[in-house]
């Protein structure tokens, strides 16, 4: 990551831009002013990528894609966040300070503009810290971070979803606590910590008033996956099919298994339709079934390729075993049963989601045999297609049976 020598001057530019922006019209004029001052920073100080970031955000504001609130928050988060990371190390404490600094940026903008979009700010902070953990090693990361922060806040702002502030605060506490314990238990790395927190917060906020139940459904998958990963781990390590990094999941794994389910939670929060409930549980059931099939099924002897039924080496993408199919069905059933006991779904929905989870697992095997083995997709892409398939299967069965 490039060290920014002119961060103090950049902070002055951002403070000035935020102070005068409400009075400067039209928006393109304010955008042009920020671009001109950013070019001065770029020319005389070591702020190349930060200057590029300011220019990108200024252009988006100038063409009225970003509202004033999002424009101001993004600039403030970028510069205060970089002030922390210029002196910090790549560890959990630095990320904690980074979260605090970006939170202060959001609070200051809220206080000045008197626009109380707390949910927008919270998702901007999470996007900022998550992108920082993922992209820290890349020199041009700041430009991508700026766009990611701005677009995340813009999306949440456009959804205009109303949530109780106390609920949002509790969701943040629970989400980050969940991610922290996953990190301490070495089942998630730093990027996995923040991505898991993001998914948890989405569930708790958008699935209200049953957000806690939805979160527990996802937690049941997490527990099942962790247990399955540790199952005969030394044996899997000997044959070379163990989960990398000691079983610690990163952002790719979390998003591949959870982002479609999180999208279902957002859709439910906006539209309040039961079809999105079965979509959510179907996605989580698929993720659980697939994880158990992969982690436990691989210990079930020589697998058979799902497309040809011929024997293949252990660990081959698309290879299935009887044990794997059995635990896949059990994994989907377990998640669906948890959802039933939490009164999120009905008994018929439980049957639908169990079937969807099993089908989704085999979609994963089919995609692995056809696309992943040919290099068109990685493991994360295969998992995401499987969860999409499982979720859509649950939706189709629900609509067809009309239960």
Give the count of helical stretches: 16
Unreliable runs, pLDDT <50, ≥5 residues?
A: none
> How do the helices and strands follow one another from N- to C-terminus?
HHHHHHHHHHHHHEEHHH
CA-CA gap between termini? 53 Å
Helicity range: over 70%
| Helix vs. strand class | mainly alpha
Instruction: Give the tally of structural domains.
Output: 2
The radius of gyration computed from the alpha-carbon positions, rounded to a whole number of angstroms, is 23 Å
What is the global morphology?
A: globular
Spatial order of strands in the largest sheet: 1-2
How large is the share of residues in beta strands? under 5%
The biggest sheet, with number of strands, parallel, antiparallel or mixed sense and barrel status, is: 2 strands, antiparallel
Count all strands and give the number: 2
Provide mean pLDDT, rounded: 88
Description:
The chain is an all-alpha fold. It has 2 domains: 7-159, no CATH class; 220-244 and 256-401, no CATH class. Helices cover 74% and strands 1% of the residues. The chain is built from 16 helices and 2 strands. The chain has a two-stranded antiparallel sheet with strand order 1-2. The radius of gyration is 23 Å and the shape is globular. 53% of the residues are buried.
Brief summary:
With 403 residues, the chain is mainly α. Helix content is 74%, strand content 1%.
Summary tags:
2 domains; 403 residues; mainly alpha; single chain; two-stranded antiparallel sheet; 2 strands
């Amino acid at each position: 990551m490039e060290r920014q020598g002119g961060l103090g001057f950049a902070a002055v530019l951002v403070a000035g831009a935020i102070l005068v922006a409400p009075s400067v019209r039209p928006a393109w004029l304010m955008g042009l002013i920020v671009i001109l001052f950013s070019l001065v920073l770029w020319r005389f100080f070591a702020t190349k990528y930060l200057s590029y970031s300011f220019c990108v955000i200024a252009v988006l504001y100038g063409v009225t894609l970003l509202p004033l609130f999002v424009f101001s928050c993004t600039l403030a988060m970028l510069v205060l966040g970089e002030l922390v990371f210029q002196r910090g190390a790549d560890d959990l404490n630095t990320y904690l300070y980074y979260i605090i600094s970006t939170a202060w940026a959001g609070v200051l903008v809220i206080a000045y503009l008197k626009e109380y979009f707390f949910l927008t700010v919270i998702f901007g902070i999470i996007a900022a810290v998550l992108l920082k953990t993922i992209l820290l090693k890349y020199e041009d990361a700041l430009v991508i971070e700026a766009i990611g922060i701005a677009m995340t806040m813009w999306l949440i702002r456009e959804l205009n979803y109303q949530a109780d502030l106390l609920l949002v605060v509790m969701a943040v506490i629970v989400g980050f606590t969940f991610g922290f314990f996953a990190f301490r238990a070495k089942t998630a790395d730093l990027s996995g910590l923040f991505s898991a927190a993001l998914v948890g917060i989405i569930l708790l906020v958008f699935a209200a008033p049953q957000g806690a139940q939805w979160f527990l459904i996802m937690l049941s998958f997490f527990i099942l996956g962790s247990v399955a990963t540790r199952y005969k781990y030394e044996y899997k390590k000997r044959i070379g099919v163990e989960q990398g990094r000691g079983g610690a999941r990163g952002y790719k794994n979390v998003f591949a298994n959870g982002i479609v389910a999180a999208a279902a939670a957002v859709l439910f929060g906006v539209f309040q339709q039961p079809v999105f409930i079965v979509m959510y549980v179907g996605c989580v059931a698929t993720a659980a079934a697939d994880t158990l099939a992969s982690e436990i099924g691989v210990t079930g002897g020589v697998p058979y390729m799902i497309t040809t039924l011929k024997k293949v080496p252990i660990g081959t993408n698309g290879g299935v075993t009887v044990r794997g199919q059995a635990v896949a069905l059990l994994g989907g059933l377990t998640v669906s049963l948890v959802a039933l006991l939490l009164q999120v779904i009905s008994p018929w929905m439980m049957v639908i989601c169990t079937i969807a989870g099993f089908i989704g697992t085999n979609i994963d095997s089919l995609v692995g045999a056809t696309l992943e083995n040919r290099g068109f997709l990685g493991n994360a892409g295969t998992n995401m297609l499987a969860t999409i398939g499982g979720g859509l299967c649950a939706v189709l069965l629900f609509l067809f049976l009309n239960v």
